[in-house]
Amino acid sequence: MKERDTPARRPTTIREVAEAAGVSPTTVSLVANRKEDARISAETRRRVREAIERLGYRPNALAKTLVSGSSRFIGLIADAIATTPFAGQIIHGAQDEAWKHGYALLIANTEGNEQLERDAISMMLEHKVRGILYSTWFHRASEIPESLWEADFVLVNCFAEVAGVRAVVPDEVQGGRAATELLARQGHTRIAFINATTPAPAKDGRLAGYRAALDDAGLAFDPTFTLEAYPDQEGGYGAVSELLDTGATAVYCYNDRMAAGLYDGLREHGVSVPGDLSVVGFDNQEVIAAHVRPPLSTVALPHYDLGAVAVRRLLGLDDSEDGVIKVSCPAVERESVGPPASAGPALHRRP
Amino acid sequence: MKERDTPARRPTTIREVAEAAGVSPTTVSLVANRKEDARISAETRRRVREAIERLGYRPNALAKTLVSGSSRFIGLIADAIATTPFAGQIIHGAQDEAWKHGYALLIANTEGNEQLERDAISMMLEHKVRGILYSTWFHRASEIPESLWEADFVLVNCFAEVAGVRAVVPDEVQGGRAATELLARQGHTRIAFINATTPAPAKDGRLAGYRAALDDAGLAFDPTFTLEAYPDQEGGYGAVSELLDTGATAVYCYNDRMAAGLYDGLREHGVSVPGDLSVVGFDNQEVIAAHVRPPLSTVALPHYDLGAVAVRRLLGLDDSEDGVIKVSCPAVERESVGPPASAGPALHRRP
DNA sequence: CTGAAAGCGCTAACAC
DNA sequence: GTGTTAGCGCTTTCAG
């Protein structure tokens, strides 16, 4: 086992290895980088390898990029790494894809602060990043900070008002459709949708998907089945009475948090899920969806893929034209959906 | 407004600026770095500034570190950036503190994969990071990957079995004490604790804190008040009957998820919170604690501070000796705690 | 098969 | 006040 040496004050350089092995720096470079086309004798190779090992040589990546001209960094700016679990998935996807191509992630969390954002972009520009991924925690239109134009960039989970800017976002319409299909497929015909009150691409998209799925299933869109509530637990809880009044046998909620609040209200009204009412959410927010009672069927936001696809676009790996790419949102089936009850849930309401 | 030029294939260099301004690179360096002690005429300064602006010059941070010898990176390795919201807070705290001192964060998510972990460490070492923060998503003892010893490092949210290794972890005992005090302070004397079944520093620490707080309040520790359950919603839900059988008027749960599950079970038994039973959790997992009904009083895990304090230790800013530093967990009061009911909750149980 | 030399972008000494 | 030189650690011609 190698000795646990305190980190060297100054790391070993290629020249030191060269001296130790009795060869030139060039030779060390050649073997360290596994250039197989280089004609190095087996014996020299061995000596160099041994010296590298013994001295604990780590090539200086910064010096490399200096000579090669191109750095191996990709910057990732997020507006809310700390306050939501979503950014983590974007980072994860971006990192996996970046590493695959030899890039490291330089990340910056701005919590929406514009000054921090400018600083982050400067920092990345000065590190000569290959490009910048600019991401937001919820899907929305976004301003593009002036200095971002100095870099090659792609928007993640947000999009620009100006045309031609590369962006990768979730396909809300397809997602809304998938959510609704989960219900329609079970034979439900009275499917309610509790939309958000807050304007967002998700609001319009998820509604459009709902209508499309209804259409696909040969069901007429009935506006009385579409409610609105603030997209969190409190909103869902507050929408229960109104929902039950519609006589729906199934409901698709704008997001999982809303569904969780709905669960609470439903329980108070003695309505069981999925026995009396089938419920689906949206977002697949693990800590909620997988652990409420019963576990919630939902549609996943493809954050991991958003990050991965964005890196591919940045690197020019997918020869796609400019503009927005929509990534599909897969359904995640758990236990909150069943066939319609013979009688509507209204019968079970407490006096 | 500056023109939106496509990112230059090759960024502007100091030499180009020097030529454009009709001065030497040294002069440009001097004004770009705002060396005020350098004697540069106002006129030259202006010319250089103008050239920098016009060419969109960004100093190459990588070249700088090459000459200065010390890089401006701090590496942060996390085992679960994607699957929990916690890593985000650590990153946030680490970044804020790092930036304050001119460092950028190089992050890597390993999802517990040892190969990825080794790769991450190699990558950071090759980028000559100032040091590495090695973090875990839940507080635990951790193996130290062999190559980590090549760097200056501090453990975050985990600790080593070997002595003398710098680590920063939450103070579980103080946290457990704070949680219990929330209840004792209201006059509760029969305070139950639902601990985790899973061994962890948190399990022992939170129990110790509970006992200490009982002691402080002059309450005897009664083992029948300490239950155990798996630390998630299902566990909390399943512990309800047993809990009610103890006749406790207040309960402190190992974590928020458990408390959320407990809420569900309590509701089914017709036990109201905090009317019949006061509840406190642990972790302050926002999406749960702040949005259940009623909002849950809990104790916050200081992830932000863990990250910030770790950076300070790495940089040697706090002249603390080696070893583990415990960061305190502040209580977060919401609405799940009230005074004891005159009659115990058992009276309210359904037949 | 291997080495010497030049140069990536920048800063630090030291001239002038 | 400002320029020249050297060199950070590395790779890349190009010789030999």
Determine Rg of chain A (CA atoms, Å): 27 Å
Compute the number of strand runs of chain A: 12
Mean pLDDT of chain A comes to 92
CATH homologous superfamily title of the largest domain in chain A: Response regulator
Quaternary state of this entry equals homodimer
Major beta sheet, strand line-up of chain A: 2-1-3-4-5-11
Percentage of β-strand residues of chain A: 15-25%
Q: What is the tally of helical segments of chain A?
A: 13
- Which series of helices and strands of chain A comes N to C? HHHHEHEHEEEHEHEHHEHEHEHEE
- Domain module count of chain A: 3
Helical fraction of chain A equals 25-40%
How far apart the termini of chain A lie comes to 75 Å
Structural class category of chain A: alpha/beta
Low-pLDDT residue intervals, each spanning 5 or more residues of chain A: 343-351
CATH domain class of the largest domain in chain A:
Alpha Beta
Largest contact between protein chains?
A-B, 67 and 67 residues
Summarize this structure briefly.
Two copies of one chain form a homodimer. Chain A is an alpha/beta fold and 351 residues long.
Please give a structural write-up.
The structure is a homodimer of 351-residue chains. Chain A has 351 residues and is of the alpha/beta class. The first copy, chain A, folds into 3 domains: 14-59, 434 Repressor (Amino-terminal Domain) (Orthogonal Bundle), CATH 1.10.260.40; 73-165 and 304-327, Rossmann fold (3-Layer(aba) Sandwich), CATH 3.40.50; 172-297 and 333-347, 3-Layer(aba) Sandwich (Rossmann fold), CATH 3.40.50.2300. Chain A is 39% helix and 17% strand. The first copy, chain A, contains 13 helices and 12 strands. The first copy, chain A, has a 6-stranded parallel beta sheet with strand order 2-1-3-4-5-11, with helices on both faces. In chain A, strands 7-6-8-9 form a 4-stranded parallel beta sheet, sandwiched between helices. In chain A, helix 1 crosses helix 2 and helix 1 (14-21) packs across helix 3. The radius of gyration of chain A is 27 Å and the shape is elongated. The N and C termini of chain A lie far apart (75 Å). Residues 343-351 of chain A have low confidence and may be disordered. The interface between A and B is large, with 67 and 67 residues. Chain A binds a DNA duplex (16 and 16 nucleotides) through residues 13-15, 23-27, 29-30, 33, 38-41, 44, 59-60, 62-69.
